[in-house]
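Sample log: Peroxidase.
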Amino acid sequence: MPVLVGKKAPNFNAQAVVNGQIVESYSLDQFLGKKYVVLFFYPKDFTFVCPTEIIAFQDQLAEFEARDTQVIGCSTDTEFSHWAWVNLARDKGGIEGVKYPLVADTNKTIASAYDVLTGDYDIDMEGNLVASGELVAYRGLFLIDKEGVVRHQVVNDLPLGRSIKEALRMVDALQHVEQHGEVCPINWEKGAEAMDPSHEGVASFLSK
């Protein structure tokens, strides 16, 4: 699996559902020079683990917004599936109230560009295009800076839910590095002491 950290995030232009409404053209370009982006992939609408993550991101949306960060979800479902799910009450299996964008990667090109697509395409002995495995997205998450560069990525297998707290921690760490020129040691959290990356600074930090 290719590592995208340090590289430009693959751009896309796709349909999405934003605040309960279908948007015909949604792209990462609108955030260049303006906002950080947390782009996360999930396998399917109308499932079990996925809504726990999607709703958790919504519950913490104000925390991301306070950090000048746009949250974007993406799966290989259609925009109509997203729309139906967002507009269905939670007690009936929906995710009503989710306002941030859910991108429809119907052609599976976005998941493929980020290398989180399960399964694979192949050509059989008769020249027919065939698929091995189910072509949905792993639980990938990508933190993209204001220059459009991926600074952090993590990919979970389908049954393994993510930590929203860790996603916020990584946003804090990236912004601390950018603002202070320091580096963040293991388990660093916002407000904790970081490290001067010089040899003397690291030695001083480790001696405490």
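Observation: Helices lie at 49-59, 61-66, 79-86, 109-113, 164-180, 199-206.
Observation: The CA atoms of residues 10 and 113 lie 6 Å apart.
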